[in-house]
Amino acid sequence: MTSSLTPLAPGGPDSAAGQGEGQAAVGAIPRHVAIIMDGNGRWAARRGLPRVAGHRAGAEAVRRTMQAAVDAGVEALTLYAFSSENWRRPEEEVSDLKGLMRFYLERELKTLQKEGVRLKLIGEPAAFGNELHDRLQQAVEETQGNERLTLAVALNYGSQAELVGAARALARAAAAGELDPESIDEARLASLLHTRDLPPLDLLIRTSGEVRLSNFLLWQAAYAELHFTDTLWPDFDEAAFAAAPPAAAVRRPMSEIALRSITGVLMVLTALTAEWFGGTAFAILVAAASTAIYYEWAKMVRGWGFKWQLGGFLYALLPALALLWVRERAGDPPGNQGFELVLWAFIVTWSADIGAFFVGRTFGGPKLAPTVSPNKTISGLVGGVLTATLLGGIWALHEGFHWGWLLLAPLFALTAAFGDLFESWMKRRAGVKDSGRILPGHGGVFDRLDGLVPVAILTGLAVVAGLS
Ligand code: FPP
Q1: Integer Cα distance of 188 and 183 in angstroms
Q2: Domains of the chain: residue spans and CATH
Q3: I want to staple 244 with a disulfide (CB 3.0 to 4.6 A). Which of 105, 137, 227, 435 is the partner?
Q4: What is the pLDDT of residues 205-244, one digit of tens each?
């Protein structure tokens, strides 16, 4: 007969049983990170939205954090999705949470497979009813061969109940004469916990400013570093994850930076080539970008009302018309510099963006709008505006533009920065990290062109006003 006390092999001495201080070397990537995802309700309340909207945005934060953990090389990520105390919440909210888990599972299963994520459940998920439980189990089975990250989702979990279960199993075995009580040690008990096949817990994060463990991984947290952040869970992202020690040592893998750079260069080359040819080639590119922006916008504002849909339509259409019109005025009358003017708009937008990135990263300092976009700094804004003024100015002088364009460069660079902030604000409100996923390493088209939208419209207006 197999005793219920037989320690599981996979964990070995290195599993939860053997964990001790300093297992994650200073500056090393944590092997196992656990998160108490708190603050969904407050996030929604601050926006005047129902609690379910907070949970929905929380599910997006789950997706982002899982990706950040995969990219960072973390081995296990354990998320407190539903505590055994959560049953006390209103029936409607419990049902919303269950629906959301079902939805998340259906939508993300492919991503779990693609990213090599193994799903594991801890707690007593059977309490969620046969249908959801069966689907969860099916996903667990389908992903069991994945090895990059284990995503352990705690459902109907309570740490004290987990410890009581382990104590009962030990007591039963001792009463049956299978176990000498004197042989019970930490390793023996840990081998009976739900986390027995996970690496030792290195880092436990709780969001939303609460400083409690709330019956989560009490045993496992014995040597873990604890990190409490005021960030509400739906706002938690890769930057917040990287800010948690020792995850602070985690750097984006080179492959991701390389992917981002290659896609960036390809996008710029495509835009420049199509712009150079003008005519149908440029029209197709602009129409495709404009359609993608509208599509991504419409998805984000679903449920926000008709005026947001209309706003998105104009937001996507106006810059497209402006760019095409400015470009095609070339040669009508002869001497009009359509190509050069559109290129000026590109130069101002891109140099504002790139200048802001490098100056902000070098000098840091006070944040520009921390609640909207935590990475942007005032020094970055100034750096972006100066870079755009310089490069836009050089181009304008080189092409012999009207001197007015020299004055417009800093002004337009400012609008590009605010276009960028506006898009970040929309994404926060919608609870998504990226507007889309079409551009590898960059997110969506709207993510990439948020600065160009105001600059394109204003360039068109400046030409209408007589500047050439
Ligand atoms: C706590 O916020 C959060 C929860 C009880 C649920 C967490 C669930 C999700 C993030 C969504 C689905 C999960 C998965 C794994 C897809 P709260 O409601 O207690 O917030 P409050 O303290 O501000 O009220």
Answers
A1: 8
A2: 32-248 (3.40.1180.10), 254-464 (no CATH)
A3: 227
A4: 999 999 999 999 999 999 899 999 999 999 999 888 888 8
